[in-house]
Design a protein that fits this description.
Hydrolase_4; MAG_DAG_Lipase; Rossmann fold; Serine aminopeptidase S33 domain-containing protein; 9-stranded mixed β-sheet; globular; alpha/beta
């Protein structure tokens, strides 16, 4: 980080049409000067307007992962059918929020995201007046628990209207051989301090992207400038922030609300696409997700999904139907649990 003092977020402008079509709108959240020295940063809040039901019982705020942005319209539609208003946040330098000259997804400290998360939560609560269910995928599944832990210690999560947390393949540890998490992490920390923008070699693979995008072997259509097949470069300064986040989570958090963790049943690390990539997590080690989920605190339910991809809601249709069934069952439990006070 630089010595530049962050500027407090200013109030967002008006809602505008979104790239997802007429049923979606976006709102720019100004965040002021970038503490990492890449100009002015902004975040983008997206809302599903067709899901603005008068009888809605809750609101979803969704956060994406690394090399990712919100494009999962079927997720918004499903949650709306379950009685939720739906919002999604593209974090600074990600997707809709990345500005010319900015390094995709780069932050030197995950707590910098607190600014847009706090403001997005404020907007969502002001617009709907409904309880908030948080959802996140992969790196977002690390960012949100860390934020919630800070929120719980400062203001109290329940006092902020948050009732639950759903994590889709959260990134809780560094995958790969054990030495990555010992000697490798020491190297990451050192390089992250002195050569923050240096790139980690060998991190850009297209296996997962090839399994998803319809131009290759998948069924999904999304912006390859915002979510390239090979992923964005991994910079040591960013990876250092991730490892610091991992360490904090592994010491134990208190997210303040019940959590559901969805993951694939198996991991298959592959350097090239093959059919096995369609039925496994090719990005994270699911055993690490299982191991560290207990560090969220409160009450956590972990559900392995047979045949799921890294993003379980981008799995093949029968598999994602199973994932939605598990989600809906947990939401029914959460509603009953919450009603008991």
């Amino acid at each position: 980080m630089t010595n530049e003092t962050p500027v407090a977020p200013t109030r967002a402008a008006s809602w505008q049409p979104d790239v997802l079509g007429e049923e979606y709108e976006q709102l720019t959240i100004p965040l002021g000067a970038d503490p990492d020295g890449e100009g002015t940063v902004e975040a983008t809040l997206v809302r599903y307007t067709a899901g603005a039901r008068a009888d809605a019982t809750g609101t979803v705020l969704y956060v994406h992962g690394f090399t990712d942005y919100f494009f999962q319209k079927h997720l918004a539609e499903h949650m709306a059918a379950q009685g939720f208003r739906f919002y999604a946040l593209d974090l600074r330098k990600c997707g809709r929020s990345r500005r010319p000259g900015q390094t995709a997804h780069y932050v030197s400290d995950l707590s910098l995201y607190d600014a847009e998360l706090d403001e997005a939560l404020r907007i969502v609560r002001a617009e709907t007046g409904l309880p908030v269910l948080l959802m996140a995928h992969s790196t977002g599944g690390l960012v949100l628990p860390l934020w919630l832990d800070r929120l719980e210690r400062s203001k109290g999560v329940a006092a902020q209207g948050i009732t639950g947390l759903v994590l889709n393949s959260p990134w809780f540890d560094l995958q790969g051989p054990a030495y990555y998490r010992t000697i490798g992490t020491a190297v990451i920390n050192g390089l992250g301090r002195v050569r923050a923008m240096a790139r980690m070699p060998g991190a850009e693979l297209s296996t997962y992207g090839d399994s998803l995008h319809r131009s290759v072997s998948g069924e999904w259509d999304y912006d390859l400038d915002w979510k390239p097949l090979t992923g964005f470069p991994v910079h040591f300064g960013w990876l250092r922030a991730i490892r610091q986040g991992h360490a904090r989570l592994q010491r134990g958090l208190d997210v303040g609300v019940p959590a559901l963790v969805l993951r694939s049943k198996v991991t298959k690390f592959m350097r090239e696409y093959g059919p096995a990539a369609d039925v496994a997590d090719t990005v994270l080690d699911v055993r690490q997700i299982q191991r560290w989920s207990g560090c969220l605190g409160v009450r956590t339910n972990v559900v392995p999904i047979e045949g799921a991809r890294h993003d379980v809601f981008l799995s093949s249709e029968p598999v994602r139907a199973t994932a939605f069934e598990e989600l809906d069952a947990w939401l029914a439990w959460l509603a009953e649990f919450t009603s008991k006070g």
